[in-house]
Amino acid sequence: MIRRLYIVTVSAVTIGVILACWLFRVFYQLETTQIQRDFERDVDKQAQALSLYIEEKFAALHHLKLIVEYQGMPDREAFSGQAQSLLTRYPSLQSVGWVPWIPAAQRYAHESAQAFLMPEYRIVERVASDELVNATERADYFPLQHIASRTDNLTALGYDFGANAVQRRMLNQARDTGQWQLSERIERDVLPNTQGTVQVVVPVYDQVQPVTRMERRQALRGFIVGYWHIDEMIAPWFPLSSFAQMHLGIADLQANEATSLLFGLGDRTASSRTASSSTQFYLSALALEGEFVLLPEPSERVSRTVLAKGGREWVMEATPTAHYFEQRRTAYSFYVFGAILFGFVGLSGYGWRVMQRHVLQWNQLGENNQQLAEQNKSLVRLTRMDTLLGVANRRFFDETLHKEFSRAYREDKPLALLLIDIDHFKAFNDTYGHQAGDRCLKLVAGELERVLRRPADMLARVGGEEFGVILPNTNNGEVVARQCRTAVERLGIAHGGSFSGDLVTVSIGVISLENVAHHTTDSIYALADEALYEAKSSGRNCIRAKKVTVPRAANTLTCIG
């Protein structure tokens, strides 16, 4: 009887706890889902409004474009008056300029005409030393002829936007599409006082709305150029929104990592909520503060596109803070949990002990899984490493060569491959024994590893006394080959059985490709092996290097004695 009562009591406690927890979880998840849906609807509304707000700002230059196309190009004073009205209306607009299209044949006439208004005017470009010098000869020019700015930007007059490859691509895209184009966030002043802005270029034609690309190219007159301060443009919009309890970031997906984050807004009280990984875009800058927090809970993040024009795609990412959920969550789920659990409070201690036992078992299972994972990693390392020398083996070499080849093909980067063979190594083993041969291999492998300083460079043993070296993003592997050959010779390992000297030396075959197009991993390896064969046939202790340029030219050979 006592045993039966004990069983019934334990069963009742277990059922009560399970039921209380299950109902709590159900109500809690339902409420959380509803709050998340409300949050997504809020973000959708704000994203749509922000998208219209941003496009309205960037389209402001269209008014000036219509004036030029219908009325003709105004003089400097008239242009300045029209531009100043835009600057007054839009505080975040830093400067507006007129950039005409000047063919090379008209450069002198253009500079002479502008010299009457500004004697020091000339078409210039910015060089690596950050100085402005006379523009080099090109087929055409895009000089800044007029500018209206909140600061003194007269020194920028004559700057050729076509001298910069990125800006020229943007101008060409605007010309061919007839639509305004947008740059990434400018972190280095192209013109004075443009840091932290984005550049908008609007094409202007001699005729209104040319239809085809050829018509647009023939009718091009020039461009209206505007610089918008992104923080000053977006920041005034947010105090009117409901984002006080959210982390928010706006990023440019087409920009590089350094300039992708355009704007950030966050709740200072939530800055303690951080994630352990920052490999993805979870960052948000506190508005106008320059502080950063990591957006937690990726499942709660909502991403919406706010701009998909002008060659850019801006995405807004919003994440609710803990305070956002706390304000909208009710205590109903807690009431359900407490009401059910209250009837079993006398037996809760036993239930706690059971739970503790489960936790201990779970922890033990986790430790066992971690040990198994570490053992698996060790096995993987063993399958990839040469057990004698501690460097990569042939299998891992082939995998890495395929991976780096694919990367070089995808990113249009150079690639170099070295095949290194120890000269007369069989004679070394016959003379000094296999143990001495193993020590020699270890010394050579260690010295070659010290030569390779970049993390991406790889040394592998691909044969008995043959090594392979993969050099990603390298267009002249001969330099590394010389270092390898000198390093091995500097070891000073005596070799009485060598026919090419008294010391252990190496022969090296090198293939350097500026572009891996029209090649395969097998063909690259074959070219390097062919170069190694030529080095060995030429008396050993030398280098044979082949270089494939773009466009593919004849192979060049270099012998280092």
TrEMBL record:
Pfam families: CHASE, GGDEF
EC number, as in UniProt: 2.7.7.65
Enzyme class per UniProt: transferase
Cofactor: Mg(2+)
An example Gene Ontology molecular-function term: diguanylate cyclase activity
Residue ranges of every copy of the CHASE domain listed in the record: 70-317
Subcellular location per the Swiss-Prot or TrEMBL entry: Membrane
Stored InterPro entries: CHASE_dom, CHASE_sf, Diguanylate_Cyclase, GGDEF_dom, Nucleotide_cyclase, Rev_trsase/Diguanyl_cyclase
Positions of the GGDEF domain: 413-548
Main location as per UniProt: membrane
Regions that span the bilayer: 6-28, 332-352
Keyword Cytoplasm applies: no
GO biological process: cell adhesion involved in single-species biofilm formation; negative regulation of bacterial-type flagellum-dependent cell motility; signal transduction
A single GO cellular-component term on record: plasma membrane
Catalyzed chemical reaction(s): 2 GTP = 3',3'-c-di-GMP + 2 diphosphate
Signal peptide (residue range): none
Keywords of this entry: Membrane, Transmembrane, Transmembrane helix
Alphabetical list of PANTHER family matching this protein: DIGUANYLATE CYCLASE DGCM-RELATED, REGULATORY COMPONENTS OF SENSORY TRANSDUCTION SYSTEM
Name by which UniProt lists this protein: diguanylate cyclase
Originating species: Photobacterium aphoticum
Classification lineage: Bacteria, Pseudomonadati, Pseudomonadota, Gammaproteobacteria, Vibrionales
